[in-house]
Amino acid sequence: HVQLVESGGGSVQAGGSLRLSCTASEYIYSTNCMGWYRQVPGGEREGIAAINANGSTYYADSVKGRFTISKDNAKNSLNLQMNSLKSEDTAMYYCGASYRAFGLCSSADYAYDYWGQGTQVTVS
Fold this sequence. Notes:
Oligomer: single chain
Shape: globular
Radius of gyration: 13 Å
Low-confidence stretches: none
Strand content: over 45%
Helix content: under 10%
Distance between the termini: 37 Å
Number of strands: 11
Number of helices: 0
Mean pLDDT: 94
Order of helices and strands: EEEEEEEEEEE
Largest sheet: 7 strands, mixed
């Protein structure tokens, strides 16, 4: 069973930046797709960024141009650099990963096999 642990969340003023990280218990170079979702209380989970095994990245329109997803294989971590944060970015952010032999992700919305517990981001 793969464990994912997010970190880096917190409170920031609008216009500020945060960097989220997700550390996996298994080597991330084996993933076919990793990404970030976010969810507000009572709302649906929104896929906001994904990166596939080839390094291709995908973003939701709501974060495009402001957020950057990346992988650090040496540190076995997935990162999300969030700039120009807005109040509407306030949510719980979750890391997801899949270790399938096929099926590269092609959008920010992907059905991951493993999820982290989430990290809260609050923008005021």
